[in-house]
């Protein structure tokens, strides 16, 4: 069975609550699609108004991060139950910006993965190499480690329902997209890694996105690759172009 494409916007640290609602209103008609899952991953403070604004549409709302404890003395953090109660279906975990600026590790990402599944939230787990790693020829070794540790203790059924986003760090926000061949090669490598950890059926079911300077001009070619099941989109998710990416065909 063909995997359903999933196109998610990662708004990062952009849009106040009122700006967020205005953006949803602008994008709503543009992202209507019966063929593709559409997700807006938004800053925590925007979640409640964005969930409200997306009611009755095809848009699902995701968070950009989540803590791995249930509740308690963790000042500034957001719990999984807070997210589900607010209507969240997806959560981005282990984005390279969180790994780089907020000291997230494969181990903390793994704890968050397990917690997300416990609460019925679908993780979009990010992985991706630096330019230096690519030049040293260790891209796949590095990503396999991220995937293997990230999925420790995750069951095959949970893995089948999850999303992995391959985002080469050198392609994020740089306008320098990976070539279609580079993106497909790594996404296929990630699928092979999932087959090794679990089995072919799990590898066939899991959805793998490409992220990194996806735009209205390159989405169609990227998403047409055998192992690329959609995209995680930063900058272009904040404008009307996102509608073109969702309706890439
Ligand atoms: P850009 O699309 O702005 O390159 O960002 C990609 C990204 O980091 C999505 O999570």
TrEMBL record:
<keyword id="KW-0324">Glycolysis</keyword>
<dbReference type="InterPro" id="IPR013785">
    <property type="entry name" value="Aldolase_TIM"/>
</dbReference>
<comment type="pathway">
    <text>Carbohydrate biosynthesis; gluconeogenesis.</text>
</comment>
<comment type="function">
    <text>Involved in the gluconeogenesis. Catalyzes stereospecifically the conversion of dihydroxyacetone phosphate (DHAP) to D-glyceraldehyde-3-phosphate (G3P).</text>
</comment>
<keyword id="KW-0963">Cytoplasm</keyword>
<dbReference type="InterPro" id="IPR022896">
    <property type="entry name" value="TrioseP_Isoase_bac/euk"/>
</dbReference>
<dbReference type="InterPro" id="IPR000652">
    <property type="entry name" value="Triosephosphate_isomerase"/>
</dbReference>
<dbReference type="InterPro" id="IPR035990">
    <property type="entry name" value="TIM_sf"/>
</dbReference>
<dbReference type="GO" id="GO:0006094">
    <property type="term" value="P:gluconeogenesis"/>
</dbReference>
<dbReference type="GO" id="GO:0005829">
    <property type="term" value="C:cytosol"/>
</dbReference>
<feature type="binding site">
    <location>
        <position position="213"/>
    </location>
    <ligand>
        <name>substrate</name>
    </ligand>
</feature>
<feature type="active site" description="Electrophile">
    <location>
        <position position="95"/>
    </location>
</feature>
<dbReference type="InterPro" id="IPR020861">
    <property type="entry name" value="Triosephosphate_isomerase_AS"/>
</dbReference>
<comment type="similarity">
    <text>Belongs to the triosephosphate isomerase family.</text>
</comment>
<feature type="active site" description="Proton acceptor">
    <location>
        <position position="167"/>
    </location>
</feature>
<comment type="pathway">
    <text>Carbohydrate degradation; glycolysis; D-glyceraldehyde 3-phosphate from glycerone phosphate: step 1/1.</text>
</comment>
<dbReference type="GO" id="GO:0019563">
    <property type="term" value="P:glycerol catabolic process"/>
</dbReference>
<dbReference type="GO" id="GO:0006096">
    <property type="term" value="P:glycolytic process"/>
</dbReference>
<keyword id="KW-0413">Isomerase</keyword>
<keyword id="KW-0312">Gluconeogenesis</keyword>
<protein>
    <recommendedName>
        <fullName>Triosephosphate isomerase</fullName>
        <ecNumber>5.3.1.1</ecNumber>
    </recommendedName>
</protein>
<feature type="binding site">
    <location>
        <begin position="10"/>
        <end position="12"/>
    </location>
    <ligand>
        <name>substrate</name>
    </ligand>
</feature>
<dbReference type="GO" id="GO:0004807">
    <property type="term" value="F:triose-phosphate isomerase activity"/>
</dbReference>
<dbReference type="GO" id="GO:0046166">
    <property type="term" value="P:glyceraldehyde-3-phosphate biosynthetic process"/>
</dbReference>
<dbReference type="Pfam" id="PF00121">
    <property type="entry name" value="TIM"/>
</dbReference>
<comment type="subunit">
    <text>Homodimer.</text>
</comment>
<feature type="binding site">
    <location>
        <begin position="234"/>
        <end position="235"/>
    </location>
    <ligand>
        <name>substrate</name>
    </ligand>
</feature>
<feature type="binding site">
    <location>
        <position position="173"/>
    </location>
    <ligand>
        <name>substrate</name>
    </ligand>
</feature>
């Amino acid at each position: 069975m063909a995997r359903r494409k999933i196109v998610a916007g990662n708004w990062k640290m952009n849009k106040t609550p009122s700006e967020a609602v205005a953006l949803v209103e602008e994008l709503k008609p543009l992202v209507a699609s019966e063929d593709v899952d559409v997700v807006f991953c938004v800053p925590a403070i925007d979640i409640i108004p964005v969930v409200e604004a997306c009611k009755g549409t095809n848009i699902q709302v995701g968070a950009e991060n989540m803590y791995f404890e249930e509740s308690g003395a963790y000042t500034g953090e957001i719990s999984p139950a807070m997210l589900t109660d607010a209507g969240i279906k997806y959560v981005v975990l282990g984005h390279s910006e969180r790994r780089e600026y907020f000291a997230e590790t494969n181990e903390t990402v793994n704890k968050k993965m397990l917690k997300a599944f416990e609460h019925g939230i679908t993780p979009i787990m990010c992985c991706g190499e630096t330019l230096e790693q690519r030049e040293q020829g260790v891209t796949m070794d590095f990503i396999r480690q991220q995937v293997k540790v990230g999925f420790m203790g995750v069951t095959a059924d949970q893995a089948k329902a999850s999303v992995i986003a391959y985002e080469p760090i050198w392609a994020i926000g740089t306008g320098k997209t990976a070539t279609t061949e580079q993106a497909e090669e790594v996404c296929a490598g990630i699928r092979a890694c999932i087959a090794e950890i679990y089995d072919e059926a799990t590898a066939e079911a899991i959805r793998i996105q490409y992220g990194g300077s996806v735009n209205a001009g390159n989405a169609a070619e990227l998403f047409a690759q055998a192992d690329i099941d959609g995209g995680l989109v930063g900058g272009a998710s904040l404008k009307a172009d996102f509608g073109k990416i969702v309706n890439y065909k």
